[in-house]
Automatic annotation (TrEMBL):
<protein>
    <recommendedName>
        <fullName>Putative restriction endonuclease domain-containing protein</fullName>
    </recommendedName>
</protein>
<dbReference type="InterPro" id="IPR012296">
    <property type="entry name" value="Nuclease_put_TT1808"/>
</dbReference>
<dbReference type="Pfam" id="PF05685">
    <property type="entry name" value="Uma2"/>
</dbReference>
<dbReference type="InterPro" id="IPR011335">
    <property type="entry name" value="Restrct_endonuc-II-like"/>
</dbReference>
<dbReference type="InterPro" id="IPR008538">
    <property type="entry name" value="Uma2"/>
</dbReference>
<feature type="domain" description="Putative restriction endonuclease">
    <location>
        <begin position="13"/>
        <end position="174"/>
    </location>
</feature>
Length: 185
């Protein structure tokens, strides 16, 4: 008996895939993964996180995207939608391709529905992105932000949780710090 599953799509087909059902889809090992529609509250929180980053001078040479950018975590294997992504490679989207291969920062707004997937599978995949420096998990319900920072020497990831509204979150590689309160609606 053959237990091998036939992929639904190739990565080339996924890259050209334009769904007309109003949903967004991640892609992993040939499988399409439908994402739950975003609530208005979630969309506002995602926009707030993107706005907090866009106003920082440390990112003036970078571009902040939210919601519809696909992140390539493994070439031709896994593409995921991050809530917010930052790239400093100005050639990243020159061809009009909506796939980001060199993000420096990713952020997920964690909800009850997305928590397990965001902090499990997606975080596991994000750690494989060589260019990634920071990954944020923003929890609007608890007003906390878990910031994962990649060590420049070892490549190991370190996490710190920020809770106090006036506490500054340092992003040393961007030479900036942002107060926790700036990330919340």
């Amino acid at each position: 008996m053959n237990d091998t599953l036939t992929p639904v799509l190739t990565s080339t087909e996924y890259k050209a895939f334009q769904p007309n059902d109003g949903l967004r889809y991640d892609f992993h090992n040939g499988e399409l993964i439908a994402l739950a529609p975003e609530s208005d509250r979630h969309e506002k929180q995602v926009k707030r996180v993107a706005d907090a980053l866009e106003t920082e001078s440390g990112l003036r040479r970078c571009t902040v995207f939210h919601t519809h950018t696909k992140i390539e975590t493994q070439a031709d294997v896994t593409y995921l939608h991050a809530d917010v992504s930052v790239t400093c490679n100005f050639l990243e989207f020159k061809s009009g391709n909506p796939i980001m291969r060199q993000p420096r920062m990713l952020a997920e707004v964690v909800t009850a529905d997305s928590r397990d997937r965001d902090r499990g599978f997606k975080w596991q995949q994000y750690q494989q992105v060589i260019s990634l420096w920071y990954c944020l998990f923003v929890d609007p319900e608890n007003k906390t932000i878990d910031v994962y920072t990649k060590d420049t020497g070892s490549g190991a990831w370190h996490c710190r949780t920020y809770r106090q509204p006036d506490e500054l979150i340092p992003f040393d590689r961007f030479e900036m710090a942002i107060p926790v309160k700036n990330f919340f609606v």
